[in-house]
Automatic annotation (TrEMBL):
Organism this protein belongs to: Crateriforma conspicua
GO molecular function, one term: acetaldehyde dehydrogenase (acetylating) activity
Ranges of residues in domain Aldehyde dehydrogenase: 48-435
Keywords: NAD, Oxidoreductase
Keyword Oxidoreductase: yes
Keyword Oxidoreductase in record: yes
Name listed for the protein in its UniProt record: Succinate-semialdehyde dehydrogenase (Acetylating)
CDD domains for this protein: ALDH_EutE
EC number: 1.2.1.76
Length: 481
């Protein structure tokens, strides 16, 4: 007899919802206030869009009846778990996804717990005049559908959850299938603690067996008020075609320009730090470097001095054969899955070179037409290209950023060159004289989020991103001055 796995799961989830809360990991049973909805006790784990959205909707209604203090408390719980359990959850993510570096998986969860902006970021505006008072406040949308990438499965959920709940919303996540287990486990832990301490379950729901169909069902669900996707071009297109408002945190291919005035040793340290972080999985990470001819050789030397390992032309060819493949009817170049997010030592071995596992980055000279320049490689090999002068370097950077308007970096002491590049590339993030992650508040000013919405213009997402503007007007009164 043939069983429909999804049907069985749904029946099990309904039965669990009816019999009440599941035991917590410490053996105790979660509190279930009398007023709690039937889905309480699921701790956010669902197998279909319909029941996940229904539970999130109930959680949203409960949150709506609560106070700002409740929101703060919920965010504190998420922060506490992200920080205290970053090692266990980070290693779980590494184990499941097999991309990136364990120490950075851990660090990402910890820093998100520490630095994602909360309710303090919500803006209220007031207009006061002869005709009274108008207050503009930020109201929630309701239930948000989020899609998250394999490159930061639980970190993206964590940052999204903090921002979205700070804005007063609930969220249903369709995670990348290759990061679904850590997504579900993190969400379960967050909800379990929130339910125990605040009495609301399912504020963050996850589709435990995510598919393109479950993403589509979320996009189309009448109770989903807003979509937020973080990923490559396909998911961005799907979200924008959904007919709903979508916040799209799309792909990047961040170029670096180095002019003749740059501090080359600082540039080398910054490129290594940014391009090797989590083995170059960050969408903001340095992906290709354009150096003006007059300092090109000195820059390559600075990279070697700073600890990166240079590959020669034959070695780069050997690596390219394994690291770059083709896809689609037009056979366009893409990064080979087998090498995405792998260690620099693995890339070096693919190039026929043995280097210590502690090597952070491999690099080498290519011409501008090399696929490593145009492809978002997401691996710790960075191509360096000679440019005639800074104008040429900026033109190349603009071309190979592909118009994503995501992230660009310059190393220079010439303010005119900085200005010129900033104007030309018109990117959401533009970093001068630092590593890419400094633009997310990790070594620079500003706040942290792992969803950077370039195509739809919201920028580094924060609680305000996930709110609707509402105006409350008092006519001719309450101006008391
Ligand atoms: P991906 O595009 O393969 O997948 C991202 C998510 O979209 C996954 O959950 C996937 O299942 C889903 N998806 C893909 N096609 C879909 C469709 N047609 N309908 C619905 N869902 C769909 O990307 P990835 O490998 O997981 O992550 C890396 C990519 O994400 C890179 O391009 C990177 O630049 C980008 N990214 C962007 C940001 C940002 O803030 N802008 C942050 C992280 C990653």
């Amino acid at each position: 007899m043939q069983f429909d796995e999804n049907l069985i799961r749904n029946v099990v989830s309904q039965v669990l919802a009816e019999v009440g809360p599941m035991p917590t990991t410490d053996g105790s049973v979660a509190l279930r206030p009398d007023s709690a909805p039937a889905s309480a006790g699921q701790h956010g784990i669902f197998y279909d869009a319909e029941s996940a959205v229904a539970a999130a909707r109930e959680a949203f209604e409960q949150l709506r009846r609560g106070t700002m203090e409740d929101r703060k408390q919920i965010i504190e719980i998420i922060r506490r778990i992200s920080i205290a359990q970053c090692e266990e959850l980070g290693l779980m993510e590494m184990d499941e996804t097999q991309v990136g570096r364990p120490e950075h998986k851990i660090e990402k969860l910890r820093t998100l717990g520490e630095r994602s902006p909360g309710v303090e970021m919500l803006e209220t505006k007031a207009f006061s005049g002869d005709h009274g008072l108008a207050i503009i406040e930020r109201a929630p949308f309701g239930v948000i559908a989020a899609i998250t990438p394999v490159t930061h499965s639980l970190p993206t959920i964590t940052g999204n959850a903090v921002s979205m709940i700070a804005g007063g919303n609930a969220v249903v996540v369709n995670p990348h299938p290759s990061g679904k287990r850590v997504a579900a486990e993190g969400v379960r832990r967050f909800n379990e603690a929130i339910y125990r301490e605040v009495g609301i379950d399912n504020l963050i729901c996850v589709i435990a067996e995510p598919t393109l169909e479950s993403a589509d069902a979320l996009f189309k669900h009448r109770d989903v008020a807003l979509i937020c996707v973080t990923g490559g071009p396909a998911v961005g297109r799907a979200a924008l075609n959904s007919g709903k408002r979508a916040i799209v945190a799309g792909p990047g291919n961040p170029p670096v320009v180095i002019d003749e005035t740059a501090d080359l040793d600082n540039a080398a340290r910054c490129i290594i730090q940014g391009a090797s972080y989590d083995n170059n999985l960050l969408c903001i990470a340095e992906k290709e470097v354009f150096v003006v001819e007059s300092v090109f050789d000195a820059m390559m030397e600075a990279m070697r001095r700073a600890g990166a390992v240079q590959l020669n032309a034959a070695q780069i060819d050997a690596l390219t054969a394994k690291a770059i493949t083709t896809a689609g009817d037009d056979h366009h170049h893409v990064a080979a899955k087998e090498l995405i997010g792998k260690n620099a030592s693995v890339l070096a071995a693919a190039a026929g070179v043995q280097v210590p596992d502690s090597t952070e980055l491999v690099f080498g000279e290519t011409d501008e037409n090399h696929p490593f320049v145009s492809v978002e490689q997401m691996m710790p090999f960075v191509p360096f290209v000679r440019a005639r002068d800074v104008d040429h370097a900026i033109a190349l950077a603009k071309h190979y950023e592909h118009g994503f308007r995501h992230t660009a970096i310059i190393h220079s002491r010439n303010v005119r060159n900085m200005t010129k590049m900033g104007r030309e590339l018109d990117t959401t993030l533009y970093i001068k004289n630092g590593p890419s992650m400094a633009s997310l508040g990790l070594g620079g000013e500003g706040y942290l989020s792992f969803s950077i919405a370039g195509p739809t213009g919201e920028g580094v997402t924060n609680p305000n991103t996930f709110t609707r503007e509402r105006r409350c007007s008092m006519i001719d009164e309450l101006r008391v001055i």
